[in-house]
Amino acid sequence: MDEIERLELRIEELRAAIARSHKLALAGRAAAILGPVAVFCFVLGLLEFTPARAVAAIALAIGGMVLMGSSRSSTEEFERALTRAEAERAAATEGTEFFDLGEGGV
Questions:
Q1: Sign of the CA dihedral with 100 first, then 92, 85, and 6 last
Q2: Are 35 and 61 in contact (CB under 8 A)?
Q3: Count of structural domains, the chain
Q4: 41: which of 4, 34, 46, 61 fits an S-S bond (Cβ 3.0–4.6 Å)?
Q5: Does some domain include residue 44?
């Protein structure tokens, strides 16, 4: 039973990590879009060009792409670990009998 509980906790942790990784990927996409949009606005004259803004726009574009790639590979790794943990849980519970303790049971 301790092994099943450990696997359940691991599965919960992996699902939370996958959710965080998806959020980071979304932030990376936003940054990767905002950087080039800022550069485009400089070209059109919609934003005043300054070297600091140009560096920030380029950093957003590059950083966003790096964050997206990193999050994608992390998500894939977490998903593989989740699949393994779920398979281990299934194997651990295969021969185990569970009893219904009713509504008040623990």
A1: positive
A2: yes
A3: 1
A4: 46
A5: yes
Question: CA geometry: angle at 42 spanning 36 and 47, to 5°?
Answer: 110
* pTM for this entry: 0.74
Q: What percent of the chain has pLDDT over 90?
A: 77
Domain carrying residue 6: 2-92
Q: What angle do CA 86, 79, 5 make, to 5 degrees?
A: 30
In a domain, 47, yes or no: yes
- Structural contact between residues 61 and 36, judged by C-beta atoms closer than 8 angstroms: yes
Residue 40 falls within a domain, yes or no?
yes
Q: Is residue 59 situated within a structural domain? A: yes
The 10s digit of each residue's pLDDT in 87-104 is 998 888 886 666 566 676
